[in-house]
Amino acid sequence: MNYGRMRFVTGFLAIPVALYVIYVIAPYAQAFYIAFTDWRGVNANPRLVGLENFQRLFDDNVFWKAVGHNLILLILMPLLTIGIALFFAFLLNAGGRGGTGGVWGSKFYRVVFFFPQVLAVAVVAVLFQQVFRPDRSGMLNAPLIALGFEPVGFLSDTDIALWAILGVLVWQAVGFYVVLFSAGISSIPRDMFEAAAIDGAGGVQLFLRVTLPLLWDTIQVGWVYLGIAALDVFAIVWVMTAEHGGPDHSTTVMAAEIYRNAFQYFKFGYASAMGVVLFFFTIGFAALALRLSRRERIEF
Amino acid sequence: MTHLSRRELLRSAALAGLALPVLSACASPAGGGGASPAAPAAGATSAANPLGLAESKPLEVWIFDGGFGDSYATGIHEPLVKAKFPKLEIKHNATKEIAKTLQPRFAGGNPPEFVNNSGANAMDFGALVQDGQLADLTPLYDAPSWDDPGVKVRDTIDPTAIELGSYDGKPYVLNYANTVWGVWYSQKLFEAEGWQPPKTWAEFLQLCETIKKSGKTAPFTYAGKHPFYIYEAILTLAAKIGGKDVLKNIDNLEDGAWQAEPVKQAATAFAELGAKYLLQGTAGLDHVQTQTAHNKGQVAMLPCGSWLENEQKDSTPADFGYAMFALPDFGSSDALPYGTLHVQPGEEYIVPARSANPQAGLEYMRAMLSKEGAGKFMELVSTLTVVKGAGEGRTLKPGLQSASTALDAAGDNAVWFLFRKWYAEMHDEVAAASGQLMNGKLTVDQWIERAQKKAGSIKSDSSVKKFKR
């Protein structure tokens, strides 16, 4: 590498790296320090309290509940989203007669599926508050009440609320992955489908033996994205649920607990300790995802 | 006409009082972080000018331009002061950003004379008090009242307001607006159906049963998504049964405060209400949705604070006739009598101790606490004030009138709790548990256990500053 090229590369990298250090690395380092203090946001000299915050965190039922919810979402959200998105993408691209095209009206569906992705998260949350309303104004409950059933407390029943959140997350995410997988499928050469169809493969076999293996890379990317999203889900939970993660902490997630402790209780030390734990969860997930995604590529 | 002539008299007396030169110039040391407030050096006092303000120096007024706007200051209180002290120059200001605008002036040692330190961007009272920035309001409360020189200001206002505005026993903050909580209903509906506001808990349950059987409307609801609305009622009832100390112990995070029998009785009573008489779907509705249902006649009663009528003014039918009743007697051995109310003064005003003319700020407060000042304020912004009987002779909307009557009737039987302000996490935990109590997912004992556990964990958390009352 000659000197000129070095300078060229350094010139390009300097600013992004500086920004990254100032706005990402430095706050992380600070959070690690604050996690060992009892700082409440106003004092100029935070007091070091050692591992006290972490000890308290260990006994904090609400936080572990939040961790549990994140884990449930981490497993189920990618699974459901990818499953549904794959199914739709297959129908849109290769589900037509003879496996050569999409089902009738696929161009229209493709646009419709993408709609939720265009909406801001806050809009989605407010929208679903109305959809889930427990009275006659609720889109889901109105028919139930009209038929004489008890309304379902989608967001007010502690046993149901988390599933309602999962439903909204999947609803919002599916559209994007339909498009992503559609792109993946359309890059698979047509003649592979045709050849398989001529050999007598039905729709199911086309999907399992041709589409899925050739799409594996794209699915893995989707899996990592969705996993990261499942470790967040702050906005939907915070805006949509009662008591910001309620009722009675039944939908809370780590990010919501960090926000609550930092900006509502002004316990920045304790919230930073939660942040540190979340940091290790995220690192752990990333390492796991990278390890699992090491797989041979299929060239075509 | 009588008060006009009285004012003339007072004005001439004020002028007479000004004949003496006022020596308060030394009362404003610039800057400095002295821990004790500079004692406001009073000018010459007189019957007309009991606080001894200097008319030669201006009175700078800063109003928080929030829900109440600032026209009550320019239209009501400033003219009152001006009429009495025509030579006093009043500099009116309004802002939404109290802290950003005024904090530098406090730090610089030339704060204004009068500040409405309210809203999301208010300055921290604890820090101001600690820094000796606030004038002691004791001279104001001991001064003769605006309307009757024979009565001290202290005796014309709700004592709760003085207590809530005190730090370490000294009054520094004037809480002017007042809020009372009760159970709200539509007079029209109650009259049409022949229902009576209940006096005892048994009557209340009976009424709920009658309403339920009528099939026309649900008996009771609350803002299910914000269970504060129901734990407020539970705690008020607990205080009514067991006395003011019940809430004091809870605020002070005493061991066993939540396990006290009155708290248990109150929670049991409301859990029963929740199991039998709630509007369908209450748990999933917020305050706007339940209040709108109330306006539409889908539910007969809900607990709320006295802001309700004003909050709902756009969706209330014209003849709805808001009214409220205090929580009924639970049993014959209740510690506090019928009519006991949860009262919580708010909207804070302060007089900076290091301002050039702090006596003028105090005089301004005295004018606010006059019956005229408070009564017109009530009419204009539709809220109660801490001034006793301020609503007399005013044309108030029915709900405000009802709340005002209840407040006057309650007298000293006012209860309140402060942990909501002091320990946000305590508030959240009690709210969460109360919602589940009303849904039947928590038993009363579990509810008590959770609240007590949280109180204990806050108590042992060294990072959280503890308060006492």
From TrEMBL, chain A:
Sequence similarity: Belongs to the binding-protein-dependent transport system permease family.
GO biological process, one term: transmembrane transport
Localization: Cell membrane
Listed name of the protein: N-acetylglucosamine transport system permease protein
Gene3D superfamilies in the record: MetI-like
GO cellular component annotations of the record: plasma membrane
Keywords associated with the record: Cell membrane, Membrane, Transmembrane, Transmembrane helix, Transport
Record organism: Streptosporangium canum
Membrane topology: Multi-pass membrane protein
Primary localization class, coarse: membrane
Pfam families noted in UniProt: BPD_transp_1 (PF00528)
Source organism, top-level taxon: Bacteria
Automatic annotation (TrEMBL), chain B:
Compartment(s) of residence: Cell envelope
Signal is among the record's keywords: yes
InterPro entries named among the record's database cross-references: Bact_solute-bd_prot1, Chitin_NgcE, SBP, TAT_signal
Pfam families listed in its UniProt record: SBP_bac_1 (PF01547)
Gene3D superfamilies (UniProt xref): Periplasmic binding protein-like II
Highest taxon listed in the record's lineage: Bacteria
GO cellular component: cell envelope
Signal peptide: 1-27
Main location class: other
SUPFAM superfamilies: Periplasmic binding protein-like II
Keywords: Signal, Transport
UniProt similarity note: Belongs to the bacterial solute-binding protein 1 family.
Name recorded for this polypeptide: N-acetylglucosamine transport system substrate-binding protein
